[in-house]
Amino acid sequence: MMDRRSAALVQAACADLIDRLGAAAIQTGDAARRAIGGGEGDDPVAVVRPRDASEVAQILRVARARHVPVQVRARLPSQRPAALRGCIVLLASGLDRPPAIDTSRRLVTVGAAVSLRQIDRAARRARLALRTLPALGADECVAAWLGAGAGGELGLGPGELGVDLVSATVVTGSGRVVALGPSELLGGPPWALAGVPDPGALLVGAEGRLGVLVDLTLRLWPAPWIAWLQATLPAERGALLTALSLGRTLASRRLCDTILLEEGRAGLRLMARVSTVRGEDDLPATLALVESAARQLGLTWTPAAPESARARIGLEEPDEPWAPAHPASPLDLRVAWPDAPKVVDVLDALGADDSPVERRWSLGQDGVRLRLLLPALQPERHGLMRGVRHLLDAGAIPTRADGALRELLRERIPSNGRVLLTALARAFDPDDVLQSSQGIL
């Protein structure tokens, strides 16, 4: 039961929110509990859906004044409604400023709640594209990736989305609206000014703790010509290592910008997106090189499936060869190429006594990204989560960490990193309003 003082604070916070934003923008009581998908006792203080930076600032100022934490979510209901108990839930879906393309400077400015797929389709109408588009999460909003410390894992394209973050509007935990990335830098390298630390990287790396991302500007790149190839392998360790070896070869030679590997009961399915920006006539030659590399390892591709012209210019959804993800709690890992075999062995050992976990790999030039689709109910009880320390020791680095996993990672942060993070938190969020938030998830 809530004591009288806590109940008074909740009532005061709700009254302040209604006074500043209006009753129509706020859900409280039973309506708020239903909105987050919670049961008895999972009562948030309120669910609020702001529309712009000024309304986000009002919410955070109320939370700071009333000593109520804020949790930011892109959509509801939540997979973990109990984590929202006693919080103001900031539903960021109203921050949906549509994509505005600057073709001359190859930039797109967009609201934080707009999906990556929607941004990419808008860019393709201008014959441009995002550097990376998550193959296994393109329908998530852009802030769900950047605000949670994930720069585009499991994506289509080289590099990470966070590299192309040019500017952003952020509301800090103290309620200040901050514009990162001055306009004179938009035509040059992002954040490169007199050796000043990269505030974009700090924002992404803080995983939602420094502020709420409202809108942002990203660099765009020429849209490539692409074709998909597939191959099927038996479900065994040797075949998996062969597929990883082929993926590393294709990525290092820049013949494919995405290599995906799905592990299922029927076997392994390897999918490669062959791409070129040199023109449509260059695509057959690139395909021939990819097929030759596969033959050297004894693999045979299915016939290529080029992208349709309408999909390339954003008039229709592209054909996607991978299976949609089922409802689950993903554990996303980043692995350096030399550590990949060791991580495979640890995964097999940890999951041997539990229900099978679907594993999806994305193979890139800088390493391997792995998504483990854990059971939707009580994923923390699975052997992979109970033994996650062994994965870290093998070289895996989790992204989108929360709960016990976050505490485990904090233990491994060097002392100088802890000092820097503490100083940033004091500057952006001195009262820990966002300390329990996990970005926009």
Task: Draw up the topology in text.
Elements: H1 4-21, E1 26-27, H2 29-36, E2 46-48, H3 53-66, E3 70-73, E4 88-91, E5 100-102, E6 107-111, H4 116-124, E7 128-129, E8 133-134, H5 142-146, E9 155-156, E10 165-172, E11 177-180, H6 199-205, E12 211-219, E13 221-222, E14 225-233, H7 237-252, E15 256-264, E16 267-276, H8 283-296, E17 305-306, H9 309-312, E18 329-335, H10 340-350, E19 358-364, E20 367-374, H11 383-386, H12 388-394, E21 397-399, H13 403-410, H14 415-428
Parallel strand pairs: 2-4, 3-4
Antiparallel strand pairs: 1-2, 5-6, 6-12, 7-13, 8-9, 10-11, 10-12, 14-16, 14-17, 15-16, 15-19, 18-20, 18-21, 19-20
Helix pairs in contact: 1-3, 10-12
Entry keywords:
five-stranded antiparallel β-sheet, 32% helix, 14 helices, Alpha-Beta Plaits, single chain, eight-stranded antiparallel β-sheet, Uridine Diphospho-n-acetylenolpyruvylglucosamine Reductase, domain 2, Uridine Diphospho-n-acetylenolpyruvylglucosamine Reductase, domain 3, 441 residues, alpha+beta, disordered C terminus, 4 domains, 24% strand
Structure description:
This protein has 441 residues and is an alpha+beta fold. It folds into four domains: 91 residues, Uridine Diphospho-n-acetylenolpyruvylglucosamine Reductase, domain 2, CATH 3.30.43; 123 residues, Uridine Diphospho-n-acetylenolpyruvylglucosamine Reductase, domain 3, CATH 3.30.465.10; 88 residues, Alpha-Beta Plaits (2-Layer Sandwich); 82 residues, Alpha-Beta Plaits (2-Layer Sandwich), CATH 3.30.70.240. The protein is built from 14 helices and 21 strands. The strands form five sheets. The protein has an eight-stranded antiparallel sheet. Helix 1 runs antiparallel to helix 3 and helix 10 runs antiparallel to helix 12. The C terminus is likely disordered.
